[in-house]
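JOB MANIFEST
job_type = single_chain_structure
chain_count = 1
residues = 225
[input]
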Amino acid sequence: MENQAEQGVYSIGAVAHMLDIPASTLRGWEDRYGIVTPIRSKGSQRLYSRNQVEQLRFIKAQIESGNSAADAHRMLGQRMAGGTVRIEPVSPQGERPFVILVAERDEYAADLEEYFLRTEGYEVCVAEDSTQARLLFQERSPALVIVDLLLSAGEGFELCAEFAAKAPGAVLAVASFDVPDEAVSAGAAAFLVKPIAPLKLVSTVRDLLGTSALVRQSRHMEATK
């Protein structure tokens, strides 16, 4: 079975936002150096794994330290030869909890997602249909929305587009079948196939909200330059 950290999850737009690297630069690095190569979905969408996001963070850090892009990729290649570049996620501390809206048609799945997210310190509101999801989005202004694409007979795709237009990079699409192309095209920043392992859910949410170690380190370096 493919390791979860190696699975394609994040769109190129989400990665560009998370690490503050232009999408054009990511594509250029891929074409020129071929070290960090995201998988292509059936519709040719670039999908980056969590490990690849960590690797790109490493490259950015090396470039900001004065190395050329070529040298940074060479150093990454050397490190990858000895093992995957990894950074452990961290939980937000001393901050006001983020509000997460879970728009989920499956009551059991919604309960599990709410439980694990609340355990991590997030505030969670749950919508059982598209109408309730829109109302809660307007009332609570969530930092992130998790949308089941089959919500209200498939209206989840429309919700992705609506919420992404109002809050770019803040939509995580989920479904019981593998449709990353459709999810990303609808505006989702990331896509996960159900059933979702708790660690996978939490780490993806952390990355999209900027509360993981890999995103925090990148932003800390920007702030201290």
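[summary]
The mean pLDDT is 85.
The chain is about 50% helix and 15% strand.
exit_status = 0
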